[in-house]
Specification:
This protein has about 400 residues and is α+β, with helices and mostly antiparallel strands. The chain has 5 helices and 21 strands. It binds 2-acetamido-2-deoxy-beta-D-glucopyranose (4 copies). Keywords: Membrane, Transmembrane, Transmembrane helix.
């Protein structure tokens, strides 16, 4: 009954399974969180690299049109639905403006402003509810607007209006907060391409990071479920700012992003560290390390715009490891890393000047440190911010 071929097949499969099991032995993750490579690592990288390269091509073919992407999205039925826009700007004079507006269910907007005009001498100003970021809309509509902040697209992928009228308070410098009457009237413009996390990430980088994780059907199901559309664009923000009747005109190199998806659960994110910066040479970077243990314990994401080549390049390597920085809950304020993109390596030095922190979402699920920074990139001066997130398990009890 059994031919020589059957015996060979059975023996071969048994051997294969044996070696597979042998190679699939895992060392415990670093701090119980950050997965390490095992014997199957390179096989997994190869497999995933092939799969992602194919997906990249098919995703490109069905790229959403710009109008659909840019419009304010209808929130999904999920209680954690999200549609978020975000602006983060800085310049060489030490000025900063960070504005986040994430539309959630039940009129909630996870929203905030951080403003620093160096020449005002006032330090960092912030929305009065800080460290809370729960703002509420007055009516249910599809606009990124609440409590005096309003962000409106004017021309898709080219022009946005950003306005604020209300109070801002001094934040973090002293125990007593002072309130100021603030008006911000700003226009963001860009003629640079945008970077989509669906189609423009480096497949080899992504494959390498996925290969750290133990794979199973539920692992891939989770990845599928968590998917959010996320794209970003560098541009320039010109703002007229009035603080207690005193006027300031500022111009900031400003990254903006738009994220939407069926749901965002901040509880899934253990930590991340995002760096975005512009150099005096006109290069722009966004480099992130993300630890979201159910999907990626060590994801490297990011890209750079090279002024010299007038082109966007995905980040292919970055040697910053989350577990080597701020693991007790305080992000680093003076450090460095290297990042590779477009075949070039850049050495990046980071120095935090101001370190305002706050909590995101209704139950304060996450704590964010929005560090306003100086950068030095291969000896060239730069400016921007480093955003470090930590899961906040205590919720609002943390301040009790
Ligand atoms: C910001 O202002 C301080 C003085 O308040 C000054 O020492 C510093 O040089 C300024 N920073 C920049 C980047 O101009
Ligand atoms: C930088 O990229 C990360 C994703 O890697 C994103 O979450 C973050 O919002 C970006 N930073 C800015 C300032 O847009
Ligand atoms: C930046 O500096 C590093 C280390 O000195 C060097 O290897 C790299 O080639 C430099 N990159 C650029 C773009 O000049
Ligand atoms: C960075 O910031 C610090 C603190 O504000 C300042 O003293 C220093 O001159 C800045 N460095 C650069 C390179 O801008």
């Amino acid at each position: 009954m059994f031919g020589i071929v059957d015996v060979a097949v059975v023996t071969f499969s048994t051997l294969l399974l044996f070696f597979w099991r042998l190679l699939d032995k895992r060392s415990p993750p670093i701090f119980g969180i950050y997965q390490r490579e095992n014997g199957l690592y390179w096989l997994k990288v190869l497999f995933m690299y092939t799969a992602l390269s194919v997906r990249k091509i098919t995703n490109k073919a069905k790229k959403k049109n710009v109008e659909t992407l840019e419009s304010c999205q209808k929130l999904s039925e999920d209680g954690k639905a999200i549609d978020a826009v975000y602006f983060n700007g800085a310049n060489g004079d030490g000025d900063h403006l960070v504005v986040g507006m994430a539309r959630r269910k039940n009129l909630l907007v996870d929203g905030f402003i951080l403003l620093k005009i160096n020449s005002s001498g006032l330090g960092v100003l912030a929305t009065p509810k800080m460290p809370s970021t729960s703002l509420y809309k007055e009516e249910d509509n599809e606009q990124h607007a609440a409590e005096g902040i309003r962000i409106t697209p004017i021309d898709n992928m080219k022009k946005y209006s950003l306005k604020y009228e209300g109070k801002l308070k001094t934040y973090g410098a002293s125990k007593e907060d002072t309130l100021y009457d603030v008006k911000i009237d700003a226009i963001w413009t860009s003629d640079l391409p945008y970077f989509s996390f669906d189609t423009d990430m480096d497949p080899y980088r992504l494959a390498s990071d996925m290969a750290f994780e133990p794979w199973s059907k539920s692992y891939f199901d989770t990845l599928e479920k968590m998917h959010q559309t996320h794209y970003e664009q560098f541009g320039s923000l010109t703002a007229k700012v009035t603080i207690n009747e005193k006027e300031f005109d500022i111009k900031l190199d400003t990254i903006r992003d738009h994220t939407f998806g069926v749901f965002r659960e901040w509880r899934m994110f253990k930590r991340y560290g995002c760096h975005w910066f512009t150099t005096a040479d006109g290069d722009h970077f966004n480099v992130s390390k993300i630890c979201c243990p159910v999907a990626f314990s060590r994801l490297t994401a990011g890209y750079m715009y090279s002024k010299k080549y007038q082109k966007l390049y995905p980040v292919t390597e970055c040697d910053l490891e989350l577990y080597q920085h701020g693991s007790f809950g305080n992000p680093p304020e003076d450090y460095a890393f290297t990042v590779k993109a477009g075949g070039e390596t850049y050495t990046v030095q980071v120095r935090a000047k101001d370190t305002p922190k706050f909590f995101i979402s209704k139950d304060w699920e996450a704590q964010i440190f929005e560090n306003l920074c100086n950068f030095t990139v291969n000896g060239t001066k730069g400016w921007g911010a480093a955003e470090w997130q930590y899961r906040n398990i205590q919720g609002k009890e943390i301040l009790k």
